[in-house]
């Protein structure tokens, strides 16, 4: 029988008698799914594996500890024969044929009247693949489909496309694989995507053509005003019935203005969901081999924004206190003013030989890592032409990475 | 063939990175700490699963043995996922495992995850940073480490202010609060405890440094100290479990 003649179907086995002849590893693989389907499973075999025995002990199936006899299929709806003896399997299949019971022969698939597909489960969904006697091929396809479902590359709930409101999705530092599974799924259901300069921009290429992409980085106003324009863009599209994904770099709440956008949407009566993301503050050092905490080296880490200078009246940061900390300091948005930051830290007690790692465009193909010290970082950043976006890690953990470079 | 040190995020499988989900799907061996990660482990399908954390009455493996297991599995050429809660390098011993692998010449890869330090507050409606309120985030390991006492200069932490997030702090919270108060942090500084973020039984309780939230909550618990701790962006929404 060729594969085209098979007919893929779902059987309702609840309470129906299903006979499995054989209790070895093949039976052991098939049984859990049969039991899960609610079938009244009976195993006929003189000996079974400990796992099958355990299922019998737990009352999940009935085990008849004896060889197969003609008549065992009486009243069965479905049968699987998987003994090591060809003649037994053939006899079972013959009895099944006489009584018009579909029967799987594990030793010779084409000689049974049914075959078991490669099956996988995802979130209540069953995926089955038949390939006409090429089990590896079926398994590979099943694994691919399951992995696509789990990562959101394939959408299993098209109704998500009719989601309402705004989702603030943290996209991670830039590597498209570092977005969350949920973020990826929401992105795939978006009608409108509002992006920044940072974050996993490669994912935008995969959006279907009908999706409108608004690049917030290109809004031609001053900084403060552009935030208002972003807020109103989110609100207008959502009110027009579109599902809007606000895709951000890292996590929305770490210097990401997520709070402002959430409040603006809430005040306008637009429902908002927040999906956390991997912040560049931790994710970028990690991928560059710098652990932000390390037992016995740094038990605390402080994340600080460098978007205003230490002596700027808008600064809320107590730089002298930071200088007294012995743990790790992660500076974001600090490339332009690194000289002032390094000076104030040194002046307040942080030794000049404290190791520093500067990571530009972390997690991306264009990543550059500079290792230096607090005393030299300003010069080195200039000399190596480090440009934003970059993360600056200050503290002894920055030197551990030398040992972590494996290749 | 390598060992992947993978951050699992706070517990909800939807908050795994796509890379983590993919690696789990093809892992031959998954080494994990918490039996409560069942939903995430389910993604590992037929892969061999080894718990090295505390399980029932059995204590957690000593770190040196975990390191050795990873080295052995890596040398045997197995495709290994070492699953770590949150991010592998945030108040975690992923760094020690990375050093052990590097020292043994076993190739490895680090896959960052969403740290509870940021996600637990966020999932309970607290943004750890808000311009005008808090522009620094300090994440500290709260538990006393017998080998490394007094590692943290609490007076500097208090002076830095902003948002302070304490991980592994359930039993040490009282002592930490005393240190912060002694260093001059205001007695009415809000403190919120977030228990079991991203799980069905997630809870939050708010108090102050002087009147701490009742620590009798189900672990794991993350504490948020600072002005942002009173915010509740999910108030009235159905996102609060
Ligand atoms: C406006 S902040 C946004 C941070 C973001 N919300 C997060 O959680 O990562 C921008 C800063 O994040 C840092 N950053 C973001 N992505 C980065 C990357 N891939 N490599 C290095 N630094 C990055 C840089 O310090 C940059 O100046
Ligand atoms: C050993 S630390 C590991 C932290 C982890 N590496 C991370 O980045 O999230 C464990 C601590 O993380 C916090 N934690 C982890 N998962 C949590 C959750 N789902 N809800 C609240 N706190 C959590 C608790 O403070 C717990 O004591």
TrEMBL record, chain A:
GO molecular function list: precorrin-2 dehydrogenase activity; sirohydrochlorin ferrochelatase activity; uroporphyrin-III C-methyltransferase activity
Catalytic activity: precorrin-2 + NAD(+) = sirohydrochlorin + NADH + 2 H(+)
A biological process term (GO) from this entry: methylation
Limits of the Tetrapyrrole methylase domain: 166-377
SUPFAM superfamilies attached to this UniProt entry: NAD(P)-binding Rossmann-fold domains (SSF51735), Tetrapyrrole methylase (SSF53790)
Gene3D superfamilies documented for this protein: Cobalt-precorrin-4 Transmethylase, Domain 1, Methyltransferase, Cobalt-precorrin-4 Transmethylase, Domain 2, NAD(P)-binding Rossmann-like Domain
Record keywords: Cobalamin biosynthesis, Lyase, Methyltransferase, Multifunctional enzyme, NAD, Oxidoreductase, Porphyrin biosynthesis, S-adenosyl-L-methionine, Transferase
Pfam families reported for this sequence: NAD_binding_7 (PF13241), TP_methylase (PF00590)
InterPro entries in UniProt: 4pyrrol_Mease (IPR000878), 4pyrrol_Methylase_sf (IPR035996), 4pyrrole_Mease_sub1 (IPR014777), 4pyrrole_Mease_sub2 (IPR014776), CobA/CysG_C (IPR006366), NAD(P)-bd_dom_sf (IPR036291), Siro_Cobalamin_biosynth (IPR050161), Sirohaem_synth (IPR012409)
EC number: 1.3.1.76, 2.1.1.107, 4.99.1.4
Pathway noted in the entry: Porphyrin-containing compound metabolism; siroheme biosynthesis; sirohydrochlorin from precorrin-2: step 1/1
Domain of life assignment: Bacteria
Protein name (record): Uroporphyrin-III C-methyltransferase/precorrin-2 dehydrogenase/sirohydrochlorin ferrochelatase
UniProtKB/TrEMBL annotation, chain B:
EC assignment: 2.1.1.107
Listed Pfam families: TP_methylase
InterPro entries: 4pyrrol_Mease (IPR000878), 4pyrrol_Methylase_sf (IPR035996), 4pyrrole_Mease_sub1 (IPR014777), 4pyrrole_Mease_sub2 (IPR014776), CobA/CysG_C (IPR006366), Siro_Cobalamin_biosynth (IPR050161)
CDD domains: SUMT
Domain (Tetrapyrrole methylase): residue spans on this chain: 2-212
Keywords: Methyltransferase, Porphyrin biosynthesis, S-adenosyl-L-methionine, Transferase
The keyword Cytoplasm belongs to this UniProt entry's keyword annotation: no
EC supergroup of this enzyme: transferase
Record's keyword annotation contains S-adenosyl-L-methionine: yes
NCBIfam families linked to this entry: cobA_cysG_Cterm, PRK06136.1
Designated name of the protein: uroporphyrinogen-III C-methyltransferase
């Amino acid at each position: 029988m060729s594969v085209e003649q098979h007919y893929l179907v779902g059987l309702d086995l609840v309470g129906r008698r299903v006979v499995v002849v054989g209790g070895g590893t093949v039976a052991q693989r098939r049984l859990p799914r049969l039991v899960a389907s609610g079938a009244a499973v009976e195993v006929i075999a003189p000996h079974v594996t400990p796992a099958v025995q355990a299922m019998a002990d737990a009352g999940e199936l009935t085990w008849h500890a004896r060889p197969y006899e003609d008549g065992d299929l009486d009243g069965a709806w479905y049968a699987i024969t998987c003994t090591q003896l060809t003649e037994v399997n053939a006899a079972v299949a013959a009895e099944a044929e006489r009584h018009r019971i579909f029967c799987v022969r594990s030793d010779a698939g084409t000689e049974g009247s049914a075959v078991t597909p490669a099956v996988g489960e995802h979130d209540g969904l069953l995926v089955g693949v038949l390939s006409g006697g090429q089990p590896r091929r079926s398994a590979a396809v099943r694994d691919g489909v399951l992995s696509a479902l789990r990562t959101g590359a394939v959408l299993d709930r098209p109704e998500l496309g009719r989601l309402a409101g705004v989702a603030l999705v943290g996209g991670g530092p830039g590597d498209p694989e570092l977005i969350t599974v949920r973020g990826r799924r929401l992105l795939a259901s978006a009608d409108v995507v509002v992006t920044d300069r940072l974050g996993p921009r490669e994912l935008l290429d995969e959006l279907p053509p009908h999706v409108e992409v608004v690049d917030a980085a290109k809004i031609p106003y001053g900084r403060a005003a552009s935030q208002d324009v972003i807020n109103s863009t989110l609100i207008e599209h959502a009110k027009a019935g579109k599902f809007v994904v606000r895709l951000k770099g890292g996590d929305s709440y770490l210097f990401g203005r997520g709070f402002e956008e959430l409040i603006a949407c809430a005040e306008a009566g637009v429902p908002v969901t927040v999906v956390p993301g991997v912040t560049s503050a931790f994710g970028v050092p990690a991928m560059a081999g710098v652990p932000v905490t390390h037992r016995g080296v740094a038990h605390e880490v402080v994340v600080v924004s460098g978007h205003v200078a230490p002596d700027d009246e808008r600064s809320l940061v107590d730089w002298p206190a930071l200088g007294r900390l012995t743990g790790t300091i992660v500076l974001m948005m600090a490339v332009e003013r690194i000289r002032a930051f390094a000076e104030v830290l040194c002046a307040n007690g942080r030794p000049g030989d404290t190791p520093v790692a500067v990571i530009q465009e972390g997690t991306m193909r264009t990543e550059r890592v500079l290792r230096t010290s607090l005393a030299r970082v300003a010069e080195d950043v200039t000399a190596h032409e480090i440009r934003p976006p970059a993360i600056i890690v200050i503290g002894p953990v920055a030197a551990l990475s030398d040992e972590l470079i494996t290749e | 063939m390598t060992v992947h040190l993978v951050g699992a995020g706070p517990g909800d499988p939807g908050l795994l990175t796509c890379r983590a989900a993919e690696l789990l799907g093809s892992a031959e061996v998954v080494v994990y700490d918490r039996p409560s990660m069942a939903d995430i482990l389910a993604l590992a399908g037929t892969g061999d699963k080894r718990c090295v954390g505390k399980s029932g009455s059995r204590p957690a493996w000593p770190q040196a043995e975990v390191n050795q297991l990873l080295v052995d599995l890596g040398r045997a050429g197995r495709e290994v996922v070492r699953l770590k809660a949150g991010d592998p390098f945030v108040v975690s011993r992923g760094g020690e495992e990375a050093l052990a692998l590097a020292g043994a010449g076993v190739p490895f890869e680090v896959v960052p995850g969403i740290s509870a330090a940021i996600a637990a507050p966020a999932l309970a409606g607290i943004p750890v940073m808000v311009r005008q309120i808090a522009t620094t985030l300090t994440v500290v390991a709260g538990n006393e480490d017998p080998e490394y006492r007094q590692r943290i200069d609490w007076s500097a932490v208090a002076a830095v202010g902003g948002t302070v997030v304490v991980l592994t702090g359930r039993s040490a919270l009282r002592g930490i609060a005393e240190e912060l108060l002694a260093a001059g942090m205001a007695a009415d500084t809000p403190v919120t405890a977030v228990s079991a973020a991203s799980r069905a039984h997630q809870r939050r309780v708010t108090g102050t440094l002087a009147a701490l939230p009742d620590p009798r909550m189900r672990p794991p618990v993350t504490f948020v100290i600072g002005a942002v701790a009173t915010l509740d962006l999910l108030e009235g929404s159905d996102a609060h479990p």
